[in-house]
Amino acid sequence: MSTASLAVSGLRGHARRLAATALAIVLSVAFVATTMLMLDALERGVGESVAGDFVNRDLVVRQTDGAANTAGVDALRAADGITVVDASARVPGTIGNNGAIATTAPRGPGVALQEGALPTGPDQVVVSSVSAATVGDTVTFQAYEYDGRQGAAVDLEVVGVMDVGNAPELSWSEVLVVDEATLRAWDPELTFDAITVDLSGADEGAARATIGQLLPGAEVLTGQEAANLAVAQATGGLDLLGPVLLGFGAIAVATSALVIANTFAIVLTQRTRELALLRCVGATRSQVRRTVLTEAGLLGAAASTAGVLLAVAVTWTAATVLGEIDLGTPMTLRPGLEPVSLVVPWVVGVAVTVAAAWLPTRRATRVAPMAALQPATATVVASRPGLIRILASVVLLGAGAAGLVLASSTGDVVIGVAAGLVSFIGVLVAAVFFVPAGIRGLGAALRGVPSRLAVGNTVANPGRAAATSAALLIGVTLITMTSVGAASAERTAMGEIDQQYPADVMAFPQFELTGSPSDEAGEQMVVEALNGAVFTQVAGVAGVAEAVEFGGGWLQVESADGTWSAESPVYGIDPTAVAPVLRDAGAVERLQPGTVGMSEWIMEINGLELGDTVQLSGPDGSSEATVVAFPMDEFVLPAADLAALDASSAAGGGLLLRLSDDADVATVVAEIRDIVEPEGAWVTGGAPARAQLTTMLDVLVLITTALLGVAVVIAVVGIANTLALSVLERTRENSLLRAMGLTRAQLRGMLTVEGVLLAVVSALLGIGLGVTYAWFGVQTLMPDGTDTVLAFPLTRLVVILAVALGAGLLASVLPARRAAMVTPAAGLAAVG
Q1: Is the pTM of this model over 0.70?
Q2: Most buried pick, 82, 307, 583, 738, via CB within 10 A?
Q3: What's the half-sphere exposure (Cβ side, CA atoms, 13 Å) at 818?
Q4: pLDDT for 754-813, tens place per residue?
């Protein structure tokens, strides 16, 4: 009989016994494939939402130092072999007292002309869909010219209404879409932010050479490179998405490999006596080995195919049902059939199933047939296998820990993922010792005969207990790591945002030029302060928790050595009054009398450092001040110091606002803008960035937790498989216990306690490992100099432990029921 025939017969004869293994393979492969397909879809959505049309273009030319001017763009359009798809340019200005941006028609997801037509002349405009203007209205726009002065007012007829998409740079101001010729007329020195190019005959190298010749100094990127850069810029340089996807994908593949290997090892252990019988009736070692490996290959191929198909169905169904996910910026899930995301899980499923069968088969064929028919003995610490296992676990854990420390200090994600896998393998190797120890520790608190019997049965075979706990250990570790990692990343990133923006929302006033050169005081810039009525309205907006006014003045700021000076708005705050509003309360403590606060960016562009001295001069006096750090891209003084230099600042200026934690940020900010912008103020702040980050991480945790829930299902299969194996092997033992007086309920209780002990020990160990990996992971992903904060989402951790407990209970139901149905007489008559 051929090996293939034996393999097929083995699969048919053990279909019920292999069902659990097949289910584990299907779920594991589906787990990997769904993860990869969903992350592909999410990555496409992120790229489309943030990067717009870049990803669809061959090349993107980015502005650097005025390289992309009108003459260069015209020459580029006339060049052979390339086609300029779009050249985006913007001119800032005002509509009345409100800030506005005039732009060429944007491209990308969500951009759509909702009404009317695109502008074709210098007196036509398309407004955004959030504008109060409609087709047929007239808007008056004043552009800022290239030298910073405001040009003449221009009346524009509204000929269309457009949804301008979700580009962050278009979210704070009124948006006007005009044609390129109009922008050129308003700004003779117009430069283009980005130029998208498709190749139409030229190869990429020739196209780059042409662009370099016509636009010297311009940065040329591929469409994908430009898209990646746009994503990084949109997240403030804190590119969490790429490393998270890379790390999670790698962990998912390795996790599924371990789950399949452990589950198949349990089943082959169950068949060890059967394989020995084949040897007894004449099968050679190589025949037995080939038969089992062929069985594993066929089972792996069939189950892996089913898993991939299940993953495709789940991914496309999720994309159809969910459609769009709001990650702070709405984005559409774009499912696809990436070959890598389909082939890799299938290959992993087949290869790991075959590899998992290799070691048990090799072990079975190395032992003499008659010896293999004897009961297996458990590994003990004093034995040679135990010492080897201890040594291997120490080496793996030590190497993994060293790698995690190295990755967290260097920021190398690849090293971090590899070290995490190595250390986790070390944990699995050592689990044969400390899982039984944990079970004994928990069992010491239990009372009653069934509980004591359960503890003894569970630790009787340490290898089996360790292999069974691995599935749930993997799932709990990853879910905990994701939850704690996301919470820690959120709290850490919030701290970084708080250092960039002192308040959730800041309303800055405009300044007006008053007086004339013939006056004694001459011309002066005076703040147009927001009045008390505006303050009352803003403070009353639902979602505004705290509101504080701050003053504004106009001073000359000069370095101590006189190498530079500038006239600039300077804002004055009362440290005591604004403390409740600030997210970073420590920032205001540095702002003492005789100091001037500046952000790192302000210091960098002016060549200043902390502790430098600057000269401040205003209409009412002058003084020196020491530079201190303050998270606002403006010059900031204590209110009393500013009033001494510019008395008009005492009349007020702008507003600092703190929003409630449950506020709808977009709605609240829109209401605040509606109130203050008609008064000439402009609005910025950290609230939108905080809301976007929170939403992104919450969705990430939701998706990954849903995917990792499959690992919990696999764990239930693994624990149930082990308990079922235990019931079969201990049929006579259980029947003897029944004959000695153990009731059916007590027998069911004993098996239930076994399942719960395995689940709880695995969950506690997984939570500890998950917290550790999350801590090192966040430190690795965050940029250098970031103060990492470890956060514990206690509610989620309690839920994880409860779900693990439920998994143990669920896994014990069928085995306990089967054991209780066997009568003592029938069980004692069974062949052992």
Answers
A1: no
A2: 307
A3: 16
A4: 778 888 888 889 889 988 988 888 888 776 666 677 777 888 888 888 887 887 777 777
d(CA 605, CA 634): 12
- DSSP letters of 19-83? HHHHHHHHHHHHHHHHHHHHHHHHHHHHHHHHHTTGGGSSEEEE--TT-SBHHHHHHHHH-TTEE
DSSP state of 197: E
Q: Give the C-alpha separation, 491 to 786, whole Å.
A: 12
**Whether 420 contacts 251, CB under 8 Å:** yes
24, 260 contact by CB (below 8 A)? yes
The number of helix segments (H) and strand segments (E) in the chain equals: 26, 24
CA angle 395, 401, 407 (to 5 degrees): 130
H-helix or E-strand containing 330? strand 330-332
Nearest by Cα to 231 from 50, 63, 86: 50
The span from the first CA to the last CA of the chain, in angstroms, equals 29
Cβ neighbours of residue 795 under 8 Å, at least 6 residues apart? none
pLDDT of residue 516: 65
Give dist(CA 744, CA 750) in Å, integer: 10
Q: What single-letter amino acid sits at 220? A: V
The sign one gets for the Cα dihedral 601, 606, 610, 615 is negative
Residue that has been written with the tokens 């589950």 in this structure: 263
Cβ burial, residue 746 (10 Å; 0-12/13-18/19+): middle
| Cβ-based neighbours of 780, under 8 Å, separated by 6 or more | 243, 407, 408, 411, 412, 413, 416
Cα(485)–Cα(697) distance, integer angstroms: 10
Dihedral, CA atoms, 733, 736, 737, 743, nearest 10 degrees?
120
Of the CA atoms within 13 Å of residue 76, those in its CB half-sphere come to 32
